Amino acid sequence: MRNTFSTTDMDAIRRQHEKWCRANDVDPNGPTGIEMAIKLLASYKPERKQARQEKDSTV
Asked: If you count Cβ atoms within 10 Å of the first and of the last residue's Cβ in the chain, which end, N or C, has fewer?
């Protein structure tokens, strides 16, 4: 299991967080937004993202 995130990983997590906050009318820097950011970091699966990118590049 990796203990670090790449810049690409962090950008993906940030976009996911911003999208969730907009959809739920939540301040990204407020308690609920921060809690969600932590959950997104904990649940992020870079392997799944990489597999999807590889699949997309072969189509």
From this structure: N
